[in-house]
Design goal:
It is built from 5 helices and 6 strands. By secondary structure, the chain is an alpha/beta fold.
Length: 156
């Protein structure tokens, strides 16, 4: 589609196409990576990463309060290796990535940038968004309550 100026004359500017993303992530980083690459091969033009509750709330996957939650509503990312696996064979310099996360947004974005750096992606080429969606924090309340019980019982 070609843009026109106020006089109806064509300009050199062209409209950017819509970015098509599917909010996805599950099980572990390798399974989520397979899903992302399959969707991209079928024409999806961006990624929208769904993280599991422990990742969103800053708990490691092996923490006692993460039991039963790891990989349930998104992909678990505990360290740089998980982020590498998540984006393996996906050129981040050409991708537009959305990450819906909460308190861990800065940390997860830094892992994403580290992986992009390892891929040789120029930082100005990186595109996407991080979203701090407060309403997504609500299901984490049971984890907080369990944490307080754990501290009371174990004196920590």
């Amino acid at each position: 589609m070609t843009a026109t100026d106020k006089g109806g004359r064509e300009t050199a500017q062209r409209d950017k196409p819509w970015i098509f993303r599917t909010y996805a992530g599950h099980s572990d980083a390798a399974e989520s990576n397979r899903l992302y690459r399959t969707n991209l091969a079928k024409g999806q033009t961006g990624l929208s990463v769904a993280f599991d509750l422990p990742t969103q709330t800053g708990y490691d996957t092996d923490h006692v309060l993460s039991r039963g939650e790891v990989g349930k509503v998104g992909v678990p990312v505990t360290h740089l290796g998980d982020m590498r696996t998540l984006f393996q064979d996906i050129p981040l310099a050409q991708m537009n990535t959305s990450m819906t996360i909460n308190a861990t947004a800065a940390w997860l974005l830094s892992l994403y940038i580290a992986v992009a750096d390892e891929q040789g992606a120029p930082r100005p080429a990186l595109q996407g968004t991080t979203q701090n969606a407060r309403h997504l924090c609500l299901p984490a309340a049971p984890l907080d309550a369990a944490h307080h019980r754990y501290r009371r019982v174990h004196g920590k």
